[in-house]
Amino acid sequence: MNNFWLTKKIVDFTEQEWEMLCDGCGLCCYQQFITSRGRFGSLIYTTSVACNQLDLKTQLCTNYANRFSVEKDCLKITKDNLPNLTWLPPTCAYRLIGAGKQLPKFHPLITHDKNSAKNHFKDRYKYAIHMQKVKKWEEYIISYARYVS
Ligand code: SF4
Protein backbone atom coordinates (compact mmCIF):
# COMPACT_ATOMS: atom_id res chain seq x y z
CA MET A 1 0.00 0.00 0.00
CA ASN A 2 2.96 2.30 0.66
CA ASN A 3 3.24 5.13 -1.87
CA PHE A 4 1.33 3.07 -4.45
CA TRP A 5 0.48 6.26 -6.37
CA LEU A 6 4.19 6.81 -6.98
CA THR A 7 5.14 3.26 -7.91
CA LYS A 8 2.15 1.89 -9.82
CA LYS A 9 0.44 2.82 -13.05
CA ILE A 10 -3.11 4.02 -12.65
CA VAL A 11 -4.48 0.97 -14.47
CA ASP A 12 -2.85 -1.25 -11.86
CA PHE A 13 -4.40 0.46 -8.82
CA THR A 14 -6.61 -1.89 -6.83
CA GLU A 15 -10.16 -0.81 -6.04
CA GLN A 16 -9.05 0.05 -2.50
CA GLU A 17 -6.14 2.16 -3.76
CA TRP A 18 -8.44 3.91 -6.21
CA GLU A 19 -10.82 4.82 -3.38
CA MET A 20 -7.91 6.04 -1.25
CA LEU A 21 -7.02 8.59 -3.91
CA CYS A 22 -10.05 10.68 -2.99
CA ASP A 23 -8.93 13.39 -0.55
CA GLY A 24 -12.45 13.91 0.81
CA CYS A 25 -12.56 17.57 -0.17
CA GLY A 26 -16.11 17.23 -1.52
CA LEU A 27 -15.50 19.92 -4.13
CA CYS A 28 -16.82 17.69 -6.92
CA CYS A 29 -20.19 17.75 -5.10
CA TYR A 30 -20.65 21.47 -5.70
CA GLN A 31 -22.52 22.68 -8.76
CA GLN A 32 -20.56 24.19 -11.58
CA PHE A 33 -21.65 26.16 -14.62
CA ILE A 34 -20.14 25.06 -17.87
CA THR A 35 -20.72 27.50 -20.70
CA SER A 36 -20.89 26.61 -24.36
CA ARG A 37 -17.75 25.51 -26.11
CA GLY A 38 -15.63 28.33 -27.53
CA ARG A 39 -12.27 28.83 -29.17
CA PHE A 40 -10.31 27.95 -26.04
CA GLY A 41 -12.64 25.21 -24.77
CA SER A 42 -15.53 25.64 -22.35
CA LEU A 43 -15.68 28.10 -19.49
CA ILE A 44 -16.46 26.69 -16.09
CA TYR A 45 -17.56 28.55 -12.96
CA THR A 46 -17.54 27.11 -9.46
CA THR A 47 -20.45 27.81 -7.12
CA SER A 48 -21.09 27.35 -3.41
CA VAL A 49 -24.22 25.32 -4.21
CA ALA A 50 -23.80 21.80 -2.88
CA CYS A 51 -25.55 18.55 -3.63
CA ASN A 52 -28.48 18.02 -1.26
CA GLN A 53 -26.86 14.80 -0.01
CA LEU A 54 -23.64 16.51 1.06
CA ASP A 55 -23.07 17.16 4.76
CA LEU A 56 -21.93 20.78 4.69
CA LYS A 57 -19.87 20.37 7.85
CA THR A 58 -18.00 17.14 7.09
CA GLN A 59 -18.12 17.41 3.26
CA LEU A 60 -19.13 13.75 3.19
CA CYS A 61 -22.08 12.24 1.37
CA THR A 62 -24.92 11.46 3.78
CA ASN A 63 -26.42 8.89 1.41
CA TYR A 64 -23.33 7.25 -0.05
CA ALA A 65 -24.79 3.77 -0.61
CA ASN A 66 -27.79 5.14 -2.52
CA ARG A 67 -26.20 8.19 -4.09
CA PHE A 68 -26.68 7.13 -7.71
CA SER A 69 -30.37 6.46 -7.29
CA VAL A 70 -31.20 9.64 -5.35
CA GLU A 71 -29.07 12.07 -7.40
CA LYS A 72 -29.33 11.62 -11.15
CA ASP A 73 -26.17 13.66 -11.82
CA CYS A 74 -23.98 11.68 -9.42
CA LEU A 75 -21.46 9.43 -11.10
CA LYS A 76 -18.63 7.15 -10.09
CA ILE A 77 -15.17 8.26 -11.13
CA THR A 78 -13.50 5.34 -12.86
CA LYS A 79 -10.23 4.76 -14.67
CA ASP A 80 -12.24 4.64 -17.90
CA ASN A 81 -14.30 7.82 -17.57
CA LEU A 82 -11.61 9.94 -15.85
CA PRO A 83 -10.23 11.43 -19.12
CA ASN A 84 -13.69 12.83 -19.89
CA LEU A 85 -14.25 14.42 -16.46
CA THR A 86 -12.52 17.69 -17.26
CA TRP A 87 -14.89 19.56 -14.91
CA LEU A 88 -13.30 17.96 -11.84
CA PRO A 89 -11.49 20.57 -9.72
CA PRO A 90 -7.86 21.10 -10.77
CA THR A 91 -6.82 19.96 -7.28
CA CYS A 92 -8.73 16.67 -7.50
CA ALA A 93 -6.35 13.78 -6.83
CA TYR A 94 -7.86 11.72 -9.65
CA ARG A 95 -7.21 14.48 -12.15
CA LEU A 96 -3.68 15.02 -10.91
CA ILE A 97 -2.69 11.37 -10.90
CA GLY A 98 -4.46 10.82 -14.22
CA ALA A 99 -2.33 13.61 -15.70
CA GLY A 100 0.87 12.09 -14.29
CA LYS A 101 1.24 14.80 -11.63
CA GLN A 102 2.06 14.62 -7.92
CA LEU A 103 -0.46 14.59 -5.10
CA PRO A 104 -0.69 17.99 -3.37
CA LYS A 105 0.95 18.48 0.03
CA PHE A 106 -2.44 18.64 1.75
CA HIS A 107 -3.56 15.20 0.53
CA PRO A 108 -4.35 12.76 3.38
CA LEU A 109 -2.05 10.15 1.82
CA ILE A 110 0.80 12.62 2.29
CA THR A 111 -0.23 14.15 5.62
CA HIS A 112 -1.68 10.99 7.22
CA ASP A 113 -4.47 13.22 8.48
CA LYS A 114 -7.89 12.39 7.00
CA ASN A 115 -9.06 16.00 7.50
CA SER A 116 -6.10 17.75 5.90
CA ALA A 117 -7.81 18.44 2.56
CA LYS A 118 -10.94 19.72 4.31
CA ASN A 119 -8.78 22.01 6.42
CA HIS A 120 -6.97 23.23 3.34
CA PHE A 121 -10.24 24.15 1.60
CA LYS A 122 -12.14 25.41 4.64
CA ASP A 123 -12.61 28.88 3.14
CA ARG A 124 -14.34 27.33 0.15
CA TYR A 125 -17.06 25.92 2.39
CA LYS A 126 -17.92 29.21 4.11
CA TYR A 127 -20.88 30.01 1.87
CA ALA A 128 -21.99 26.45 1.18
CA ILE A 129 -25.71 26.03 0.65
CA HIS A 130 -27.82 23.09 -0.46
CA MET A 131 -29.24 23.05 -3.96
CA GLN A 132 -32.81 22.73 -2.69
CA LYS A 133 -32.50 26.15 -1.02
CA VAL A 134 -31.38 27.96 -4.15
CA LYS A 135 -33.42 29.55 -6.91
CA LYS A 136 -30.75 31.21 -9.05
CA TRP A 137 -27.42 29.46 -9.27
CA GLU A 138 -25.69 32.41 -10.87
CA GLU A 139 -25.95 34.29 -7.56
CA TYR A 140 -23.67 31.72 -5.94
CA ILE A 141 -20.60 31.80 -8.16
CA ILE A 142 -17.49 31.88 -5.98
CA SER A 143 -14.65 31.58 -8.46
CA TYR A 144 -13.43 33.12 -11.66
CA ALA A 145 -14.07 31.09 -14.75
CA ARG A 146 -11.45 28.64 -15.93
CA TYR A 147 -11.20 26.89 -19.25
CA VAL A 148 -11.69 23.16 -19.62
CA SER A 149 -11.03 21.22 -22.80
S1 SF4 B 1 -12.83 16.55 -6.00
FE1 SF4 B 1 -11.70 14.61 -6.30
S2 SF4 B 1 -10.50 14.39 -4.41
FE2 SF4 B 1 -12.14 15.89 -3.95
S3 SF4 B 1 -13.88 14.66 -3.14
FE3 SF4 B 1 -14.17 14.84 -5.36
S4 SF4 B 1 -13.24 12.97 -6.19
FE4 SF4 B 1 -12.42 13.22 -4.11
Account of the 3D structure:
It is a single chain. The chain is globular, with a radius of gyration of 16 Å. The longest helix is centred in the N-terminal third of the chain and has 6 residues. It contains six helices and four strands; from the N terminus they run ααββααααββ. The protein has one domain. 19% of the residues lie in helices and 13% in strands. With 149 residues, the chain is of the alpha+beta class. Strand 1 and strand 2 form a beta hairpin. The mean pLDDT is 92. Bound molecules: iron/sulfur cluster. The site of iron/sulfur cluster has 13 residues, from helix 4.
List the helices and strands and how they pair.
Blueprint: H1 4-7, H2 15-20, E1 30-34, E2 42-50, H3 67-70, H4 93-98, H5 108-111, H6 116-120, E3 129-130, E4 146-148
Parallel strand pairs: 2-3
Antiparallel strand pairs: 1-2, 2-4
Bound molecules: iron/sulfur cluster.
Iron/sulfur cluster (SF4) binds next to helix 4.
